[in-house]
Amino acid sequence: MHYRRAPEKPYPAPTEDASAALCWVAEPADALEIGSARPAIAGDSAGGNLALSG
């Protein structure tokens, strides 16, 4: 799945998508047996910027 991109979907749509993805993983963190206290985030190129800003 991809985040919404400009010019069709301008800011803040991509940032909202990155934030939603983090919440999507963080909510069931205990059930997935992953640590939710200190999540690791990553991205490549524009995705790296979104990962840090989301």
How would you characterize this protein structure?
By secondary structure, the protein is an all-alpha fold. Helix content is 48%, strand content 0%. It is built from three helices and no strands. It is elongated. The chain starts with 12 loop residues before the first helix and ends with a helix. 4% of the residues are buried. The model has no long low-confidence stretch (mean pLDDT 84). Keywords: Hydrolase. Residues 2-52 form the Alpha/beta hydrolase fold-3 domain. One of its GO terms (molecular function) is hydrolase activity. InterPro entries: AB_hydrolase_3 (IPR013094), AB_hydrolase_fold (IPR029058). It holds the Pfam family Abhydrolase_3.
List keywords for this structure.
54 residues; mainly alpha; 3 helices; 48% helix; elongated; Alpha/beta hydrolase fold domain-containing protein; hydrolase; AB_hydrolase_3; hydrolase activity; AB_hydrolase_fold
Question: What distance lies between the first and last C-alpha atoms, to the nearest angstrom?
Answer: 16 Å
Q: Would you identify the regions where 5 or more consecutive residues have pLDDT less than 50? A: none
Please describe the biggest sheet, giving its number of strands, its sense, and whether it closes into a barrel.
Answer: none
Portion in beta strands: under 5%
> How much helicity do the residues have?
40-55%
Radius of gyration: 12 Å
Structural class: mainly alpha
Q: Care to count the β-strands?
A: 0
Mean pLDDT: 84
